[in-house]
Protein 1
Amino acid sequence: VHILPTGLDKSSYVNNENKSKELREKYLQGRKYLLCTVSRLEMEKNQYYLLHALKELKERIGDTFRFVFVGDGSEREALEVYSEELGIRDNVSFVGAVPNQEVKDYLFASDAFLFSSKSETQGIVILEAMAAGLPVIALDATGVRDIVEDGENGYLIQEDGVKVSTDAYVDKVSSLLYDDNKRRVFAGKARETALCYHSFHIAQMAEDFCKTTIENSVRRKKKKKN
């Protein structure tokens, strides 16, 4: 048995510069940094934690950023209300569901990818973000730690018991935004990680496994005859 990850289509790595520039200008609204996430808006995705982190981030670095939620779900209205209560509604945009082929445009328009889910199967959206050259700040969770290398292509925030403090999360986001060089290095590493999941490479892995399986089967049959 050999496990193959889901590969990324070659289009995931190609930036439509005009479209991403248009989206960046649209959602930045004069701020300096554009952050984003791609996720279903459901309780298990832990987005209330993310909103609380954004509130703290605004307290630390001021009104210098905007955040884009790409995706929809049953929690959308409640999340919008919560962002209003936290005083960050003007910093957050809920764009709703976006066609799969257009998601990458939002990723290429951004400076970093924030993720707060506590459990993922494969973390495809993280890989798509990395294909766009985005450093990832995420909770250290199943599926996520398989892709994000702490201090290399992003940051993993450790859980502290049953409750995860937003302090450490915000520490990493703010430090990455303030350090342009580190952000560039992380972006390059993220891109390298994503390239390992190109569908071409995954297909090669499948081919190699099939060849090896066939060769082993032939050897076993020859051994039995002898």
Note: The beta strands are 33-38, 65-70, 92-96, 112-115, 136-139, 154-157.
Protein 2
Amino acid sequence: MKLECTKKLLDFLGEKPGKGVADPNADPLFSWTANLILLNRRKTIVITHVASHATFVLYGITAKDLRNIQELIMEGMENLLKSMYVRQEIIELYLRDCGRSVEFAANTSRSAVATCNKVCERVQYLTNLFDPGDPFQKPYLKWLNDDMIPKEGYAYVTDFFLSLLRKKYGAEIQRCRA
């Protein structure tokens, strides 16, 4: 999976990517961007899906967590999909198609950076509710993704992301918990 990051996040991660060129054939379903912000004196990585603005956060990341940052990102993505009630088989397919390793790259799109900055503003509204012991903030994933985007006639973030998944994997992608 290719994760485009801001310069601030790349410096925090200790990554030195070269200047990349955006791939015109890249599937928008697998396009993510990330930024590093400071909330309550804790470093927070905000990861946003570029096309649908679906978001998850990694809150309170320390230098010790950088050793397994790839696993944290994949687990955060899995938690996001679970919060949307996506079936476990589809989650595994999506994570497999993304790739189990994360390749950090510099941002190539100004609109992706603008989208991520707007989402970071939205994350700051929930700052006082975040639990310092939970890096994934699972209870607030629904609130983070309860926004409307002006794509396809003002669709909800969750609905638009699920429609992208539906196009890729078929009609039955969700399962409601009983």
Note: The radius of gyration is 15 Å.
